[in-house]
Amino acid sequence: MAVIDESLLPHTAEVEHPGTTTDRYGDTVVDWSSSTRVPVAAWLQQNTGGENNDQRDAQIGEWLMLCNPVTADGQSLTVYGKDRVHWGGMAFEVQGPPGPAYTPAELHHYEIRLKTVEG
Questions:
Q1: In this structure, what are the phi and psi dihedrals at residue 7, rounded to the nearest 5 degrees?
Q2: What letter would DSSP give residue 70?
Q3: Helix, strand or coil, per DSSP, at residue 7
């Protein structure tokens, strides 16, 4: 499998997958209190930033994360749109499904759009 050279992925981020629980109606729902985290080598960069002054003073950042489809120990990495990413003391929400990027023959890496809001 072709992957990004790990030396080009200088950041260590954690992908957080939520657990699930059953609500009072018998439906399966996301449960962040039973989540799991997987460390991954990644490249993170901020694409845009801005302020929202409508009713509150919020700082909004949109980021891009590149990572290999396998972890350093050879485990397959799956990222979903409902996941969170933690890096450098910040928590990001994954925005939409991660984009797989291919070589002509196979999956090469993931391009994952992230968003953070503070305030």
A1: -70, -15
A2: B
A3: helix
33 neighbors 19 (Cβ within 8 angstroms): yes
Nearest to 37 by CA among 80, 84, 69, 73: 84
Give dist(CA 119, CA 112) in Å, integer. Answer: 23
What is the residue whose two structure tokens read 């489809």?
Answer: 69
> Residue 47's beta-bridge partner residues?
none
92 and 84 in contact (C-beta within 8 Å)? yes
Cβ–Cβ under 8 Å, residues 111 and 98: yes
pTM exceeding 0.90: no
Amino acid (1-letter code) at residue 58: A
Closest CA to 81 of 58, 47, 113: 113
Q: Nearest Cα to 38, choosing from 99, 118, 105, 110?
A: 110
Q: What is the pLDDT along the chain (119 residues), one digit of tens a residue?
A: 677 888 889 999 999 999 999 999 999 999 999 999 999 999 999 987 665 556 666 778 899 999 988 776 777 888 888 899 999 999 999 998 889 899 888 888 989 999 987 75
